[in-house]
Design brief:
Elements (H helix, E strand, L loop, with lengths): L29 E2 L11 H9 L13 H11 L6 E4 L1 H13 L5 E5 L4 H9 L3 E5 L8 H7 L4 E7 L11 H10 L5 E5 L13 H6 L3 E6 L12 E4 L2 H10 L7 H12 L1 H24 L11 E5 L3 H13 L2 E2 L1 E2 L8 E5 L3 H19 L1
Helix pairs in contact: 1-9, 2-9, 3-4, 5-6, 10-12
The chain binds pyridoxal-5'-phosphate (PLP).
Pyridoxal-5'-phosphate binds next to α3.
Length: 362
């Protein structure tokens, strides 16, 4: 045994598998594996980022006040209850470090986002996986799994990689039913794709133990910059700020995110285009015999007849320069997650799936 040993739990962490970005040999590859906005960020965000180029010797602000104010304005929130992080991934890890440790349990769902488990193990706590019901978050199953050791419950609504969403009344039932020593985290990474949805804001306002996380990586098209945020009761935000690095979000990232959230017209355009193309793609796949649940996000979880068929289709798509995401690691081996790209990408991927299905039937 080497003398240097990491903390318990660390070696149980399996490395996060990012959506791949290469298809060797194919030309004109399109990456549809990481739920990125195919149109990129608002031009105003790129301009704001550029202006920071001559200020890079300066440290960024530590309190992120201009960005928090812009977020509060855009979503009708209290700026004092917002914390900004290096992606919402960082907010997820702050929550685990601050509230869960050895002997504690953290609940995530069967097809829940990989970072919940990773951050739980990193904090030395025990991840508890709860079944979903036909790829839908199952509130009763979560409530049944709660006990005196449960410190955090993570759900994403809408969820990745299923794309499904549960009603606010169901989430409220969950918030009502969990123990008072448990924090409910509502991951709203895809909230902006749902017209008229508040991401869980009302629930944060109603309870002392509900937190919402959000990101600039999806609708706002800034995944490369790494900016996310959390919204919660003051006592939790104050706690998280104690373990946050004082300069965690970089100067260019703060500037670009602020400009992005102020450009709601651009965000609306991206949402509308996603809604239109998502419906088209789901329908085109269905016509080729590939089913999917109604997606509330910027991707479709395409269901095949078997793991073998899903993997063969993935190989075929790759040969056509189309990179999608295998989700065997999310207990969905018979599925492929396909990001809704621009119109040309949607057409290419639908056409290729049709060819794949046609070949098999010949
Ligand atoms: C993409 C995603 C995130 C966040 O990503 P960041 O880039 O770290 O903000 C969080 N939760 C879910 C469910 C996601 O799909």
């Amino acid at each position: 045994m080497p003398k240097i040993q990491p903390q318990p739990g660390i070696m149980d962490i399996e490395l996060y598998q990012a959506g791949s970005s290469h298809a060797t040999g194919a030309e004109n590859t399109v990456k549809l594996s990481s739920n990125e906005n195919p149109f990129g960020p608002s031009p105003a965000a790129i301009e704001a980022l550029g202006k920071t180029a001559h200020m890079l010797h300066r440290y960024p602000s530590t309190d992120h006040l201009p960005l928090r104010k812009a977020i509060a304005e855009a979503f009708d929130l209290w700026s004092d209850n917002i914390i900004c992080g290096v992606g919402s991934d960082e907010i997820i890890s702050f929550l685990c470090y601050a509230y869960a440790g050895p002997g504690d349990e953290v609940i995530h769902t069967e097809h829940g986002f990989a970072m919940y488990r990773i951050s739980t193990l990193a904090a030395g706590a025990t991840p508890v996986e709860v079944p979903e019901h036909r790829r839908l978050t199952d509130v009763d199953a979560i409530l049944a799994a709660c006990n005196e050791r449960t410190k955090i419950v993570f759900i994403a609504n809408p969820n990745n990689p299923t794309g499904t969403m549960i009603a606010e009344a169901e989430v409220r039932r969950l918030a009502e039913g969990i123990p008072s020593h448990t924090i409910l985290v509502l991951d709203g990474a895809y909230a902006e794709y749902v017209e008229g949805y508040d991401g869980g804001t009302r629930l944060v306002h109603s309870y002392e133990n509900v937190v919402m996380t959000r990101t600039f990586s999806k609708l706002y098209g800034l995944g490369g910059l790494r900016v996310g945020w959390g919204y919660g009761p003051k006592h939790i935000i104050d706690t998280l700020n104690r373990i946050r690095g004082p300069f965690n979000v970089s100067l260019p990232a703060l500037a670009a995110a602020e400009a992005a959230v102020k450009d709601q017209a651009y965000a609306d355009q991206c949402r509308d285009e996603n809604t239109r193309l998502r419906a088209w793609l789901a329908n085109a796949l269905a016509e080729h015999g590939v089913a999917s649940d109604t997606s509330m996000t910027n991707f479709i979880l395409a269901r095949f007849n078997s793991q073998e068929e899903a993997e063969a289709c993935d190989e075929y798509l790759k040969s056509q320069g189309l990179i999608v995401r295998r989700v065997g690691g999310y207990n969905l081996p018979e599925c492929l997650r396909i990001t809704v790209g621009d119109e040309a990408s949607c057409r290419r991927v639908a056409h290729a799936v049709g060819q794949f299905k046609g070949q098999k039937n010949d």
